[in-house]
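Supplementary Methods S3. Input chains for the assembly prediction are listed below.
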Amino acid sequence: MEISILVLVLSFVILLALNVPIAISIGVSTLLTMLFTIDFEPAMMTVAQRMAGGINSFALLAIPFFILSGILMGRGGIAHRLIEFAKVFFGMLPGGLAFVNVISCTLFGAISGSAVAATSAVGGFMVPAMTKEGYDRGFSAAVTVTASTSGLLIPPSNVLIVYSLASGGVSIAALFIAGYIPGLLLMLGLMVVCGIWAKIKGYPVGDRIPLRESIRKTIDAIPSLLLIIIVIGGIVAGYFTATEASVIAVLYSLILSVLFYREVKVKELPSILIKSVETTAIVMLLIGTSSAMSWVMSYENIPQAISSALIALSDNPYVILLTINFILLVVGIFMDMTPAVLIFTPIFLPVVTELGMSPLHFGIMIVLNLCIGLCTPPVGSVLFVGCGIAKTTIAKIFKPLLPMYAAMFVVLMLVTFVPAFSEALPRLFGLYE
Amino acid sequence: MKTVMKTIDQVLGWVLMVLMAVMVLDVTWQVITRFVLSAPSSLTEEIARFLLVWIGLLGAAYAFRVRAHLGLDLLTEALPPKAKWRTEVAVNVICFAFAAVVMVFGGSKLVALTLDLQQLSPALQVPMGYIYTVIPLSGILICLFAVDHILQGKMPEHDDDLPVA
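Predicted structure tokens for the full assembly:
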């Protein structure tokens, strides 16, 4: 058994270092590991079957639909409407534009389900606007990048659907509602950093918007915000499933962006469809090959081996949870969120449930933890897009990022050690006992 | 060769686009039958799942074509161009091998086995073997694309603004 772990880990690391697509790396290492115990022909067939079987799930259908509606919303001009909306409430504070940026990124990230999309859509407006008001470019970019990830915890969230699958069926509705408080805590933490930073640097107070204009801007943003209410309200009330809600989100955003805001033209729809297929396929191939990998891992009892090694390390739950968080932070530095959730959920979930942590709570913790990795060099998709959009460099963005990492880490610790942040809301709505 | 590849790319793109649009319509129909007609269709759920399998795996070949799959380019980016190209060739060879062994060979065996066992899907009563044909099909495309990437002497460029995370 030990040699199979070695083959699995070693081959995977070598393939990753070569820049083989992660999904294929998972497939190849899985096959190599299988060959120690299973004949060639059944091993091949098992991997092929898991690749299709892992995707063959009705719950997973929500992912392509939320991706599609996210792209439609992203191109449909909701970014600047959300920004104007946030300005009504926070523009007049000292460092107001920084707060507006945090809130717009969170809202957009939540609606579109994509931190990368939030960074490019909101950052594209906000970084130039902040630079014009005298804000440091690196700081503006750092705010955009970190705030965009908080939308990943606020539903609808594809990564939470992926976690629901990887954890063996934690309710998607419960995960969705559980993400609100940690997501908003993250947003608040970043706002505190912005407030202090703005005070030190003496950043300008924004304009107060006249009442009449405020009302108009709020009304203008309502249709975009309504999507969250319809989709999440419907899921939480048990009115429809996540998959049904996701297709409603597609229809709603289609009508909103094509007919109502008129920012997406009908002839752009094919390119939007193919973009959604591309993103869907990336996630699906990962899910397919990781489902083969988790099959071989449980066949070889790998999670149990790691679990007993961790528990042998210490019998103090705090130490074990800190160790797991530390490992995940390191993983997040090098790996994107979806593959990390798929690979590490089956490994760590048995350990934490033994410590008495609920699978629901762990799901929120792992996603929040990996949010930090999305903002760190050398491998941070959101960070790179943010630097590109803001026309700045990693070196310049790094210093303002440091206090924000600290804020994210504090929120991570709160969420790790206070189960109520994740569990109270689902319990209140009767989605979790 | 070039025009053949271009045709394959275009046909693949169109097929995927149509499958995605059909999947949206299919699940929309499911919602309508459940809420408006209050007579939920039993077929739409299975159709949607099979469409997802086809989109996922055929789309995987498409994503490989446009170099969209997530990878770790940290080390290879630091290499000089010549060495970097050698790693690109190695990556394509590995992807070719995986697609050929698991998807084409293992996938065909799986199709043959499920057809032999006459395994039918519960609602539509379609042989599961037909659904699984997407595995070898996507495998053949990935092999073809890998060879084409190597023959072209360069990898396709990919834009970074992928809304994945």
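Chain B touches chain A through 66 residues (CB under 8 Å). Residues 160-165 of chain B have pLDDT under 50 and may be disordered.
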